[in-house]
Amino acid sequence: MHPNAQLLNTFYSAFQRRDGDTMATCYHPDAEFSDEAFVGLRHAGVTSMWRMLCERGKDLTLEFRDVQADDRTGRAHWEARYTFGATGRKVLNIIDGEFEFRDGKILRHRDRFNFHRWSRQALGPMGLLLGWTPFLQKKVQATARGNLEKWMREHGVTGP
User: Fold this and answer.
1) Is there a domain that residue 131 lies in?
2) Domain tally for the chain?
3) What is the structure's pLDDT at 159?
4) What is the 3-state secondary structure (H, E, C) of the chain?
5) pLDDT score recorded for residue 130
């Protein structure tokens, strides 16, 4: 197995255990992350996001597969089941991750998922009606960023 594929296996196995500290060790100091909810995070924000999600995801279960990597890039498919805290609704989020590596660590990480599908599950009728709109996605992004910044302040982390 390529070392970067092993790195991704370590990363997702740690996520399965809700071990945000081990996940954080997989990232390069210049790391960047984006997905449909968290946009443009740098290293402190990236590692804090995973720690926050692991800490809050009491019923989180995760499966991953199709891990592929070479010296420069990688990808993986993962699916997370959890209760969305703001509404108490059950979610199955289906995600494809794309990675770039440097010095044996994750430098760039981009997760992609169907925001409308996610919002229908997480937000119910509002997500069904408005989940396809940029308005709702921007609102979710602002809320996610605010929650992350609050978590980071509470844990003495500067960033994101």
Assistant:
1) no
2) 1
3) 65
4) CCHHHHHHHHHHHHHHCCCHHHHHHCEEEEEEEECCCCCCEEHHHHHHHHHHHHHHCCCCEEEEEEEEECCCEEEEEEEEEEEECCCCEEEEEEEEEEEEEECCEEEEEEEECCHHHHHHHHHCHHHHHHCCCHHHHHHHHHHHHHHHHHHHHHCCCCCC
5) 87
pLDDT along the chain (160 residues), means of 10: 97 97 98 97 97 95 98 98 94 98 98 96 90 91 96 85
Quote the radius of gyration of the chain (alpha carbons, Å).
15
Q: Is residue 125 situated within a structural domain? A: no
**What's the CATH code of the domain at 63?**
3.10.450.50
**38 occurs within a structural domain:** yes
108 close to 32: Cβ distance less than 8 angstroms = yes
For 105, the domain range is 3-81+98-114
- What is the spatial distance between Cα 25 and Cα 105, in angstroms, rounded to a whole number? 8
Domain presence at residue 88: no
pLDDT at 160: 59
